[in-house]
Amino acid sequence: MRITITGTPGTGKSTVAQILSRKLSLPLYNLSDLIKKEKLYTSYDEKRDAFIVDTEKLKDFFKEKKDFIAEGLIAHYIPSDVIVILRAKPEVIISRLKERNYPQEKLNENAESERIAFCATEVFQNPLSPVIIHVDTTERKPEEVANVIMKGIKNGGLVEEIDWLEDQWDI
Questions:
Q1: Which pTM value belongs to this model?
Q2: Is residue 164 part of a domain?
């Protein structure tokens, strides 16, 4: 089984992916690490402190792999059997990313990205997986999120209604 987990930074991708990897006995790929290690990028954006990913190289890396979990902001560019989109309220994103010492500009950018459902919109507009699981992690522990995902896999998908557009939040 090929599972990709995407979402705004701070939604719980890495933690949940580790739990799922143990539960399903699947190898886990952290895309941030993999992209650097395998040089799957075209350049480096100093302002954002991020590599610009070569999505074709990324897809090629996974092309022959049959069983894996790949987690990262751009995981939804990898064709898979199951795509998981993790979401959290923008104010929760800010709180979680402050703990990682993100600069204010990145806090604002990621909170706004989550508010407008950037990752989810990309997945729903161009799904590269037959099964979509869309989960709100705001008030769930990582183990509970993993269990919801397992249920979604068993049931052939799960899409929770999530909309932060009308919410007001302070930075």
A1: 0.94
A2: no
